[in-house]
């Protein structure tokens, strides 16, 4: 296509008042005259990328506020407990199956444990986190140690 025709198309896009429509017009032109047209990612690759992003977010859960670059966050994480013990003050130190270690930061009295129950860590306000058991009203504040 001659250069004058390309300039006419560019001029047409430049006269569009709506910024979004103008951007779309320029994008279509760029795609039209590009040597390497964009290729769509296969559906499996997109799904695998989303799963990896979720795994990465789960690994950073509880410490992402220490790194402002983290983009995705999870509000509630179902966890599998590898071990639990109490410190000298009676606060729980919980090691998860994925290697994360969480420590209770407030005293709440009795907390019942059952190996068959489902436990979770949930995000609270101001970078706080709560450990609880599904179906129970009792939970306690925790912080991630490792």
TrEMBL record:
InterPro entries assigned to the protein according to its UniProt record, in alphabetical order: UCP023238
The protein's name in its UniProt record: Uncharacterized protein
């Amino acid at each position: 296509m001659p250069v004058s025709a390309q300039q006419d198309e560019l001029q047409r896009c430049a006269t569009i008042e709506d910024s979004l429509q103008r951007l779309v017009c320029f994008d279509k032109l760029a795609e039209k005259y590009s040597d390497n047209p964009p290729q769509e990612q296969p559906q499996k690759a997109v799904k695998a990328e989303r799963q990896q992003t979720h795994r990465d977010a789960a690994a950073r859960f509880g410490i992402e506020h220490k790194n402002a670059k983290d983009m995705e966050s999870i509000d509630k994480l179902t966890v599998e407990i590898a071990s639990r013990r109490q410190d000298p003050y009676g606060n729980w130190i919980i090691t998860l199956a994925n290697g994360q270690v969480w420590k209770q930061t407030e005293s709440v009295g009795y907390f019942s444990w059952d190996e068959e129950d489902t436990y979770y860590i949930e995000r609270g306000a101001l970078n706080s986190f709560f450990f609880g058991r599904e179906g129970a009203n009792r939970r306690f504040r925790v912080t991630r140690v490792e």
